[in-house]
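This part of the workshop introduces the protein records we will be handling. Each record describes a single protein and holds just a pair of labelled lines. Instead of coordinates, the fold is spelled out as a row of discrete tokens. To make this concrete, we reproduce a full record directly below:
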Amino acid sequence: MIRLRHGLLITACVIGFVSVGACGSDEVFLPNTPGISDASPDGDAAEAGDAWGKPDSSVGDATAEGGCAAGSTLCSGVCVNLTSDEANCGACGKACGAEMACLLGKCVCPAGEFACGEECVDLGSNPEHCGSCATACPTGLVCNLGACSQSCSAGLTNCSGACVDLSSSQEDCGVCGNECTGETLCVAGLCQCSPGQTSCSGTCVSLSSDPSHCGTCDTACDPGVVCSSGICASGCGAGYTDCDGACVSLATDPANCGACGTSCPSDAACVAGSCQCPSGEMLCNGACVAVQSDPLNCGGCGVTCVGDQVCSSGNCQGHCSGNLTECGGACVELATDEQNCGSCGIECTGGTVCTLGACVCPASTTNCSGTCVNLQTSVTNCGACATACPAGQLCIDGACSTGCAAPDVLCLGDCVDVTTDALNCGGCGIACTGGSSCVSGVCTCPQGQTLCNGVCVNLQSSSSNCGACGTSCTGGTVCTDGSCKCPVGTTLCAGKCVNLAADAQNCGSCGVVCTAGQVCSLGACIGGCPTGETACNGVCVNLATDELNCGACGTACAVTQQCTGGTCTCMQGLTACDGVCVNLQTSPLNCGACGTVCTGGATCSGGQCGCSGTLEYCSGVCVSVKSDDKNCGSCGYVCPAGTHCTNGSCH
């Protein structure tokens, strides 16, 4: 018997707070299970795409190839998109297998599965394809974490020869043979919808945005009307976009990230309209993978550990190092790994995270029947688990209500002041980035800086924004007082800064070229270099101090480095972080120490993350303690239900 382990469907149907208007017809599967990729060790897997999921435009009206709209192709009299049509994937008539989906013109399997011929299987538990497509476990043995064994590991159950986690297995949810259907997921041994979604006739939908199920399962919005916060309306609120009748935030919606229909991999987040993998993971063939432990992407995409090697801290080696444990060729920390929490194969689901070897809900959320929910905003668990708000009402501060009190605006179920909220500045989902803060509803940079492409820069000194946003200094020039100028001791010749005293192509003056065998020394072409200097491409240099030829000809130091004793070192006041010299006193990505990132609109000053103006840094976000209901008067003080923060006090 072939056993399949379905991955998460990356559609508007899966992740909470997203639209499900297109559910049921355009599912996209993406691989994202650590240790498993979309290319099997036997070479039988179908290739996956190398980008995030893209919007599907299968049918159009504009005439192009075969009378179809641009981007679609005529196949058997029907206009289809060859990048996503499962019956015509990459070419007309090329159909994907029953369990496969078409992604960027390639047939791919669900997350965590491999293509063995036309079938998608979980190599970690399938007894007929255990560890590889060609390996079948002998009678009496089970497939345990990709290896044929006498018994299953702790926490796993033998279901017809497959070792599975009954709390998270899609095909064996709670008990062997109980398969989750209707887009439900197995969470805590129960088939249920993702947080923020409700089952309507067996299909998981978002009542807050689905125009076919707006507010209640039986409420469908009329044509031309959108579903906004569970209410049929004529248009979407500030910060939200109409995607097929669903009002979503393109800045945060993983099913419509940056544009309608652009979906992120299952464990990627949509941040400021861009899909981002979790910390410590890397995008490999359309999936976020843990390159520190994935034996098929060890240290980098496509780097495969062979034989009995395991992947430990990004390196293929014979055994796991330190306090890491081997789970199917991956060296993981059982105390924190969400795919192997406390024991190999135990997966954290329902929004839980692995803490001290146990799957628990993050702070500010509560475990309701195995799913982590925010009791302050959940319309189905408002104030307490299983306490649902009446049709058309919202859950605000843990109480059912018809709307927010002025001047607050409803953003993803929470009332916020868009005039000061750095994550919703001027509108929902508009986050202030690059060191800017929200002032009067506008992302504003500190005095003396300008916002260029989402980052606060000093136009007087920024080499990529010199004098104006987008003006880059080239040819070795540096930005000084808002103008691109050559460093002291160099001259601009044909758009490049050169040292007339030592440049063989511009010796003494621009355009004077030394002949073959000559070098330029002190502005004159001579036959050889003085003592202590070396000829590098016709130029006499001191390899001990020359930043373009440090230690050897052609070895150039970075802009923030200096050449000392023939070695490139960080300039005074800078520190090397991941090979880059930074100022720990001002770097927002390395504030005070390497890897310390200032978030939520904070800037780095004096090695400390802080906020501009009257804002305070609370739990990694710049907020106004005068108006923030969750930090009223001081960080962490939450106003009781039904009250709001005004001038630092709850009323």
Observations:
- The two ends are 63 Å apart (CA to CA).
- DSSP finds no helices and 56 strands in the chain.
